[in-house]
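User: I'm writing a tutorial on reading structure tokens. Could you give me a worked example: one chain, its sequence, then its tokens, then a sentence or two explaining what the tokens reveal?
Assistant: Sure. Here is the example chain.
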Amino acid sequence: MARKASVVIEKDEHGFCAWCPELRGCQSQGSTREEAIANIKEAIELYLETLPDDERDVVLSREILTTTVEVDA
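And here are its predicted structure tokens:
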């Protein structure tokens, strides 16, 4: 069954870091954004394989939204 998971991607001096807020400690990286996305997708799938079905449903049922706000700086 296809499910959705949130992914945060940050660019740093070494490339791109990606992590999944629903899955504590599930993170990856890549030289490009596309590589980071492919790597975090694989990391999420492997992480989910370690969870019992009922726990998998709980962690993936959380809705995480991101947005931006304007600040004075």
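What the tokens reveal: The chain has a mean pLDDT of 93. The domain at 8-60 is CATH 3.30.160 (Double Stranded RNA Binding Domain).
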